[in-house]
Design goal:
Blueprint: E1 11-13, H1 18-27, E2 45-48, H2 55-69, E3 80-89, E4 95-98, E5 105-110, E6 121-124, H3 133-137, E7 144-147, E8 154-158, E9 163-165, E10 174-182
Antiparallel strand pairs: 1-8, 2-3, 3-10, 4-9, 5-8, 5-10, 6-7, 6-9
The protein binds fe (ii) ion.
Length: about 190
Amino acid sequence: MLETISNNFYSIIDPPNKDEILLNAEISKLTEDQEFSWADYCSIKVERLDLQEKFFPLFAPSLNIFFNELNLDANDLGIYCDEIWRNTYTRNFYQEIHNHSPLHLSGVLFLNDEQEGDGRFFFFNRDYSEVSKEWRHIGLLSDRKYIKAERGKILLFPSYMLHGVTIHKSDNIRKTLAFNLLFSTV
Ligand SMILES: [Fe+2]
């Protein structure tokens, strides 16, 4: 049986309270603080949402599914929502490859179904540079893993994973909600 060894993983969760999450993501007020230390490196519109108090009532069911899939006990992690914001992509917006370290767990809630020409979320395989051309030619791995946006689905992944969004080449308005979580093991 083939096995792989990797610390890269993700899950796409179909939240049981999807309608409630979508409603809150779309009607949420913004916080007063709209400064983003990292936004200068992006070509997207970002808006910090006033959802931190509602975060766990909204997202705990999805986090429970995620940690159950991992067969990990998250009850004593003291998970804290560090930041939650909305991304809006119009034509030619994109997100360069980056990670969310030193945060621990990151999530993306897709607010649209992906359409032709839309920017596409992808994970970047940082180890791909070590794969020789012969292995590449016979199709081993790829440097990117694309995730198709589906409205209401939540993508969860460790914050150290490299990811980005390709250039948005359509006139659709592409929106996502994103968040970063911290937890403690002491
Ligand atoms: Fe990101």
